[in-house]
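> call design_seq(struct)
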């Protein structure tokens, strides 16, 4: 993925990522992450205009999502960073297990 600061031009960019698609359109199995509300992740670049960040949060609310403000421009959205951690841990547990999968 491309860091937002590389795309930002004059503060006109805000990262926006919905954790789950529209429930009425796509059947979804929700796996809640403790401490992380299901909603929309909003990632401002350092140069993002605060009005644009507020607009993104308002959009999330209109979509029925809980806006989650994530500070820090990283190479992946927080949901994917958490997923990678879970996958590594579960793979290590499976490899250490003497039980057949």
């Amino acid at each position: 993925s491309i860091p937002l600061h590389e795309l930002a031009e004059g503060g006109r960019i805000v990262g926006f990522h919905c954790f789950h698609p529209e429930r009425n359109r796509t059947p979804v199995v929700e796996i809640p992450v403790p401490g992380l509300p299901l909603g929309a992740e909003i990632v401002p670049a350092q140069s993002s205009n605060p009005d644009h960040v507020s607009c993104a949060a308002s959009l999330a609310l209109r979509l029925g999502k809980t806006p989650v403000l994530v500070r820090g421009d990283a190479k992946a959205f927080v949901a994917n960073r958490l997923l990678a951690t879970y996958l590594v841990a579960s793979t290590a547990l499976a490899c250490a297990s003497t039980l057949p999968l």
